[in-house]
Amino acid sequence: QGSRMAQQRHVPPPLKTEEDYIPYPSVHEVLGREGPFPLILLPQFGGYWIEGTNHQLSEAPTSPPTPAPSTRAKLEGNHTAKIYRKHFLGKEHFNYYSLDPVLGHLVFSLKYDEQEHLHLLLRTRARTLHDVVPISCLAEFPNVVQMAKLVCEDVNVDRFYPVLYPKASRLILAFDEHVLSNHFKFGVIYQKLGQ
């Protein structure tokens, strides 16, 4: 039984050393060639690079730091694109559609939540509008057209039609999130004078 247990034990493979890798060309080798240069250089012995943690200036002229121009960082994101996923998808809600003579095709989603609020999400040809309205602020419970006008006063339709397609939520989600891209990573490298 002991030998059977020893056979079943899995011994992890030994860690690879630099000798086990087929080296990629170094940065110096690549830059020593004629262009065009590749956009991506892999680390010479595989793995990945972590940079920016222990760099020091090497005998660079020390000069007082120049004041940076007054700039503001601006990060842009489309927050309305994820509202349907966050507040509607997988929860009880209703989807409607209509055709406005000015705004074009409209898709309207609404949801009642436990805190007595209406989550309203209206998509027009030009933009997506979202609002949360406490039911206690309403004199009477509105119909679907009145709820759409709470989000956008320009809505001019007589009625909304319920969306009766079983996979409508997936299609609406794909439409809302088509502007998002989750497949890219960006890094910023800043090099001071003399580095």
Automatic annotation (TrEMBL):
InterPro entries: Rap/Ran-GAP_sf, Rap/Ran_GAP_dom, Rap1_Ran_GAP. The keyword DNA damage does not apply. Keywords: GTPase activation. Pfam families: Rap-GAP_dimer. One of its GO terms (biological process) is regulation of small GTPase mediated signal transduction. The keyword Nucleotidyltransferase does not apply. One of its GO terms (cellular component) is cytoplasm. PROSITE patterns: RAPGAP. GO terms for molecular function: GTPase activator activity. Residues 172-195 form the Rap-GAP domain. It comes from the Eukaryota. This is Rap1 GTPase-activating protein 1. It comes from Chaetura pelagica (Chimney swift). The lineage of its organism: Eukaryota, Metazoa, Chordata, Craniata, Vertebrata.
